[in-house]
Amino acid sequence: MDGSRLEVMNHVENFVEKSLSKFLRPVDQNWQPADFLPDSRSASFFDEVRSLQERARELAYDFWAVLIGDTITEEALPTYESWLVGMEGVNQDGRGGWTRWIRGWTAEENRHGDLLNKYLYLSGRVDMRQVEISTQYLLSDGFEIGTGADPYRNFVYTSFQEMATLISHKRVGDIAKAQDNPELARICNKIAADEGRHAHAYQSFVTKILEVDPNEMMLAFADMMKKKIVMPAHYLRELGVDLGSTFSHFSEAAQRLGVYTATDYVDILESLLTLWSIDKVPDLNEAGERARDYLMKLPDRLRRVSERLKIPESNYEYSWIGVRTD
Predict the structure, then answer these.
(1) Is 112 noted as a catalytic residue in this protein?
(2) Beta carbons within 10 angstroms of residue 128's beta carbon
(3) pLDDT digits (tens, 9 = 90+) for 21-76
(4) Is residue 70 flagged as an active site residue?
(5) Is 109 a catalytic residue?
(6) Domain total for the chain?
(7) What pLDDT is attached to residue 1?
(8) Active-site option among 70, 74, 213, 216
(9) Residue 74 catalytic?
(10) How would residue 158 be classed by pLDDT, with cut points 50, 70 and 90?
(11) pLDDT grade, residue 92 (50/70/90)?
């Protein structure tokens, strides 16, 4: 990283230090997975589990595929933490704002996979060993999202991705609520709220960078959109299948349910263009102006493509769930 980039990262780190209390919740005031699940110490534990399983039986096959895929994505957290810690400009001595943010973000995100995993286990609908195999594969396979160690590109990615996970968890919760499963709806909505707060943090980092290094930030934004924002579980697979092959089925299930669609992708891009006032960023050079022009025209192009997409029906049977009955 050249001196000017390092200076920008140090500048934004000062903002992060001052904003940690806004972006993160104190541990002693935060929710924990146990708040949402039957208490195994209680005399009513087995009755509560049976009630949970009865409601779980009403949920459709595609719904389980999406919920399990979301869970595995959250469980791959060690990959995401090591990627963020490896960004240029992050001092790994543990005392600076960047490392404090990354550790705090990781601690909050860690609860998501814990909670969803325990729900799957109690539901009685899932082959947990197959889920655990897919989780181990995803951690072992890692991901390639096109950011390298560049913080500018990483913050574009996280700004976008946290919004995508917010939408996904919120809509899974909406479906659960409509299917008379208020406990699962509450779980998903709590996780979605965290994702929204984390999205706000990463989006604020980009806002601060645009103030002091608009050209390089604009180029990074355009570059990430040219590469396309891939989901962190894009290498998702099951036992005995090719790298990433399960992800395509998971993604199609999410689109059939309306949990996360190509239209949502465009909507997130448009919201970021508006949030960062991309059309009004001053002091751009020729390359920066070209990048801005590309970004401002992109939503219309992508929306035309999304309108032509046809999502196939599927009879795919996941090892996580077993034989389809719908």
Answers:
(1) yes
(2) 13
(3) 999 999 999 999 999 999 999 999 999 999 999 999 999 999 999 999 999 999 99
(4) no
(5) yes
(6) 1
(7) 64
(8) 74
(9) yes
(10) very high
(11) confident
What does the pLDDT average to over 167-188? 97
Contact 298, 104 (CB under 8 A): no
Q: Write out the E strands in the chain.
A: none
> Assign residue 124 a region: left if phi > 0, alpha if psi is -120 to 50, beta otherwise?
left
Query: CATH code at 247?
Result: 1.10.620.20
Residue 16 confidence (pLDDT): 97
Active site residue 234: no
Cα dihedral 74, 99, 87, 79, rounded to 10, equals -20
For residues 101 and 201, the answer to whether their CB atoms sit within 8 Å is: yes
Catalytic residue among 7, 11, 31, 270: 31
What is the pLDDT at residue 264? Answer: 97
* CA distance from start to end of the chain: 54
**Cα(20)–Cα(114) distance, rounded to whole angstroms?**
23
- Compute the CA torsion angle 171, 234, 80, 22 (nearest 10 deg): -30
Q: Calculate what percentage of the chain has a pLDDT beyond 70.
A: 99
- 198 counts as catalytic: yes
Residue 321 lies in a domain: no
Backbone conformation region of residue 310, classed left if phi is above 0, alpha if psi is from -120 to 50, else beta: beta
Q: Is residue 42 part of a domain?
A: no
Q: Is residue 36 part of a domain?
A: no
Is 322 within the bounds of a domain?
no
Average pLDDT over residues 88-96: 83
For 12, the domain range is 3-28+47-308
